[in-house]
Design a protein that fits this description.
The complex is a heterodimer of chains A (568) and B (367). By secondary structure, chain A is of the alpha+beta class. Chain A contains 21 helices and 21 strands. Chain A is globular. Chain B has two domains: 218 residues, 4-Layer Sandwich (Metallo-beta-lactamase, Chain A), CATH 3.60.15; 128 residues, Rossmann fold. The longest helix of chain B is centred in the middle third of the chain and has 17 residues. The chains are: A alpha+beta (568), B alpha/beta (367). The interface between A and B is large, with 41 and 36 residues. The structure holds zinc ion. Zinc ion binds next to loops of chain B.
Chain lengths: 568, 367
């Protein structure tokens, strides 16, 4: 555990990519395969099971630290992270320890894999008393920093903030293979074993699961206008769909649907699997397509919310399949007949894609009647001005804007700037007043950064949006001071403030909501800027917001403040 | 019977003795626990402080009469007996003991129980009523051995030097900077300090504190020490152009707030060393118990939580409302609270209150 703790400390201590890569490389060059496999799963952010409830942990920790539960909660509100709070309040195993220095000499002799096996896996199926015994015993064995990491694993919240591309880079350097190859080997690899790790590090083509997805190539937002991108003729424009990015891998034996979060979503989309199998049969060779999953209802495209209903269900009913029919709209092809096409220019990939998926997607058509697999149409334009005019129709078409892809570009991996851009429509905006503030988490635990904002309705301010602050660090500190000074009431970590601060918030859409007091909810709200020049009386009203409803008559499409997205 | 101390518009006030302790506005008579600028304001008529703190206070308040108390001495102010004892916070920091009508009050000011080579150790005083600080009054704050922290700072410096990088260590210009300087290993490389730190280094030396050789950081010394030096600077210098002139440098901060990962990360320093001049949570409880006080008034930081805990443990405890929230994490880590923030706030305050500004038109101290 000590070696892994040291790795996390080094990752935590630097913001420099090169140093992070060096730390990861160093770890994997030394760790036994058994530990390395566990570390890889942790660094990759594999979803872990929560083994004890946080309520139990809090209770046991308060008892072990000899403090009342309310004081532990007070600490948690200050620290903003439960795993860290517990690590800080628990009595030290060794008398002296520098929380920032190397781990204490007595702690964590056991390897990472054995700790995971003996303290985490061992906990499954045990009752509370036995789990408590293991937790308390492990506390005695571990130092402060190790406890922090262990708590993260225990509560299923281990996140080290290391980009996957960074891990891929470090491992590719160690194994002596191309970073793209390593990234592909890592895709969809969950809970790797020691053997998996060993074959991962093999110099050339050890048998990797052929149903694994390719690393997704991600787009960056266009800053300013697209004119800086040069000649419009060098670019291919497509609609930016409001769905879920996915890869469809069709092989002779089976089909897989992977979402961008590297979740295997095959079971959630039986109709797509069926259509892909039919495609495979028709063309007679394997293929891997990159595209978007979309729900097409009676009256056209439904938004992302509808799609998450399909993903969220454990069991798909006939009714759900009928109510929320899904299509796959392909925009790229990564592999065909066993050939990796990613190094071909987009124009060439597009030609091959059009050959096997010729039918262009038209959202006004009904999905089930007309098929499941479509081609994402190219939006033609002779100039940037023309393209801008088309983009202006985005909202009414139910899309988020345009994608701009360089016709000569390879299919890269990760967010490499330059070749793929997303040119979203300008967000909607309104001025809103700060009503409640809550301290942030992690890096911003001591500042109030989560704001609930309201607009006017009949002379009163009603909350309409909860937004994480997009302010600069300096502004955050300043706003935090004002929040503290104007606090009217405190409810745990939440402060009710005197309405004095006005912020301009941006959001993607407004929809009716029965779950919100205001009857409206805004989608993806974020704070654009602090309007120091405005008084609360100058803020917008509920009527202003209602005027921005995407489909004023469509009360069924309930949008809410969903933060998780699938599309780039 | 009335309390011996109350809170007036100008700060902690003793009505019977007609004097203030650490006033935040100019008053005729001020008893000062220590020279940090949120405790020692300029412009008062007369100051009283602990003997070893006189030169440091002078550096802060300029040319005003300062009386001192030594061990075993006391002074009577309108019949209130005032004496002092070291608080271990910074050089010359002291607790103030007031005795009147058979009741004893002690105001701790800022204090710590840890060893510090640059100031006298904290001495517990018995009293009936204790006014204690609680900047770090939550059980998440538990300091490690300062010698071990010093060792990891030196180790960090050595590592940086071996890679040809300058080390920049941010710390309060008064107290923390000198404490750090005293534990640095001069064999590793040259030590430089920001001008704000240098002025106080001189005051420390003049008060008889031994510090290693430190030079003011100038363009020339910067060149000479490039890639090897340790530079001590106030947090207000972080992020500015000043830091960028060091080329390949690594920056760290030494502060109690560094105990929290979120704070370390948000500030974006390469390292955070947990070293504080305030008592940690166990330290506060130890000091409160040692005072034998039945009644405890808590101020700064986590005052409400600490007061509640003390009540649950059978003491009569409450929060003493003061104007300054004390050394908050933001103040300490993003600006030099000692040198700037408080003065800025004070400037605002007197600007908004013409009566006060006219009363004693002392220029605002510019650090
Ligand atoms: Zn102080």
């Amino acid at each position: 555990m000590r070696r892994f703790t040291e790795l996390c400390r080094r990752l935590d201590a630097t913001t420099r990519t090169n140093e992070k890569v060096a730390a990861v490389r160093h770890y994997f060059s030394e760790a036994p395969a058994e530990d390395a496999a566990v570390a890889l799963a942790l660094l990759s952010g594999d979803r872990q099971r929560r083994l004890v409830t946080t309520t139990e942990l809090r209770e046991w920790a308060a008892e072990a630290a000899g403090i009342p539960p309310w004081l532990l909660e007070e600490c948690y509100a200050t620290v903003g992270d439960l795993a860290e709070t517990l690590a800080l309040v628990l009595p030290d195993p060794a008398a002296e320890e520098d929380s920032d220095g190397p781990p204490a000499a007595t702690a964590g002799e056991d390897g990472l894999a054995s700790i995971v096996r003996d303290t985490l896996h061992a906990m499954k199926g045990l009752d509370a008393a036995e789990r408590k015994r293991i937790v308390v015993e492990t506390w005695r064995k571990l130092g402060r920093e190790e406890r922090f990491l262990w708590h993260k694993m225990l509560t299923g919240g281990f996140r080290m903030g290391v980009a996957r591309t960074l891990v891929a880079r470090a491992l590719s350097e160690l194994a002596g293979v191309d970073p793209a190859t390593m990234a592909h080997r890592l895709m969809g690899l969950s809970s790797p074993s020691a053997e998996d790790f060993t074959s991962l590090m093999a110099a050339e083509g050890a048998a990797t699961d052929r149903l694994r997805p390719y690393p997704f190539f991600l787009a960056s937002p266009v800053e300013g206008g697209p004119e800086s991108l040069g000649d419009v003729g060098e670019w291919q424009a497509e609609w930016k769909w409001d769905g879920m990015r996915a890869q469809l891998i069709a092989r002779e034996a089976s089909v897989a649907v992977w979402t961008r979060g590297e979740e295997l979503a095959t079971d959630a989309f039986p109709e797509i699997v069926e259509a892909a199998a039919a495609l495979r049969e028709r063309i007679g060779i394997d293929c891997a397509l990159d595209g978007e999953l979309l729900v097409v209802g009676e009256r056209g495209l439904l938004d992302f919310q509808a799609l998450s209903k399909r993903i969220g269900r454990k069991r798909l009913t006939k009714k759900l399949l009928a109510d929320l029919p899904v299509v796959f709209v392909a925009y790229d092809i990564l592999e065909l007949g066993g050939e990796d096409l990613r190094r071909l220019p987009l124009s060439e990939r597009r030609r091959r894609l059009e050959e096997i998926v010729p039918e262009r997607f038209d959202p006004r058509r009904r999905a089930a009647a007309d098929g499941r697999l479509f081609l994402s149409p190219v939006v033609d334009a002779a100039s940037w001005e023309q393209l801008a005019a088309v983009r202006a129709e985005s909202r009414s078409r139910g899309v988020e804007g345009l994608m701009l892809k360089r016709r000569q570009s390879h299919y890269g991996f990760g967010r490499t700037r330059g070749d793929w851009w997303k040119w979203k429509v300008e967000p909607l905006e309104i001025d809103a007043v700060l009503l409640y503030a809550q301290a942030g988490h992690g890096r911003r635990a001591t500042l109030h950064t989560d704001y609930t904002l309201g607009v006017w309705s009949d002379g009163r301010l009603v909350p309409v949006a909860k937004a994480y602050s997009g302010l600069s660090d300096a502004e955050l500190v300043e706003v935090d001071r004002i929040i503290r000074r104007t606090t009217l009431e405190k409810h745990g970590p939440v402060r009710v403030v005197e309405p004095t601060l006005v912020f301009e918030i941006a959001f993607e859409a407004v929809a009716r909501s029965t779950r919100h007091k205001a009857g409206l909810a805004v989608r993806f709200p974020r704070i654009k800027r602090w309007r120091r020049d405005k008084l609360p009386a100058d803020a917008g009203s509920l009527a202003d917001l209602a005027g921005l409803l995407r489909r004023p008559d469509d009360t069924a499409a309930v949008c809410s403040m969903v933060h998780q997205r699938a599309q780039t | 019977m009335h309390d011996l101390l109350t809170v007036s518009d100008s700060g902690l006030y003793c009505p019977a003795g007609d004097f203030h302790i650490d006033p935040w506005r100019p008053v005729p008579r001020a008893v000062i626990t220590h020279a940090h600028s949120d405790h020692a304001r300029s412009g008062c008529g007369r100051y009283l402080c602990w003997t070893t703190g006189k030169l440091v206070l002078r550096e802060r308040i300029g040319n005003r009469p300062i009386d001192v108390l030594r061990r075993g001495e006391s002074v009577s102010m309108n019949g209130v007996k005032v004496s002092m004892a070291p608080a271990g916070h910074i050089l010359g920091s002291a607790q103030v003991r007031l005795e009147h009508g058979g009741i004893t009050w002690v105001v701790t000011g800022d204090y710590k129980l840890q060893a510090d080579p640059t100031c006298e150790p904290f001495e517990p005083l018995r009293c009936d009523v204790l006014v204690t600080e609680s900047t770090f009054g939550l059980p998440i704050y538990r300091w490690g051995d300062p010698a071990a922290v010093a060792e990891s700072i030196n180790e960090w410096w050595r590592e940086n030097r071996d890679q040809g990088r300058t080390s920049v260590l941010f710390a309060y210009s008064l107290g923390k900077a000198q404490r750090l300087a005293s534990v640095l290993d001069p064999a590793i490389g040259p030590i430089y300090a920001h001008g704000a730190v240098m002025r106080l280094v001189k005051a420390y030396r003049d008060s008889g504190i031994r510090l290693p050789s430190i030079d003011q950081c100038t363009r020339e010394t910067r060149k000479a020490g490039d890639g090897r030096a340790m530079v001590i600077a106030p947090p207000s210098a972080a992020g500015g152009r000043w830091l960028r002139t060091f080329g390949d440098a690594r920056a760290a901060m030494a502060s109690g707030w560094m105990a929290i990962r979120g704070v370390r990360r948000r500030r974006g320093f390469d390292r955070g060393f947990v070293l504080s001049d305030h008592a940690d949570f166990p330290g506060l409880l130890t000091a409160i118990q040692a005072s034998g006080a039945r009644r405890v008034l808590v101020t700064h930081g986590s005052a409400a939580a600490l007061a509640r805990l003390l009540c649950e443990r059978g003491l009569e405890a409450s929060v003493l409302q003061t104007r300054f929230t004390g050394e908050t994490v933001e103040a300490e880590t993003s600006e030099d609270v000692e040198a700037e923030t408080s003065d800025e706030e004070r400037g605002e305050e007197s600007g908004g209150d013409p009566g006060d500004a006219a009363g004693d038109a002392e220029p605002v101290e510019v650090a």
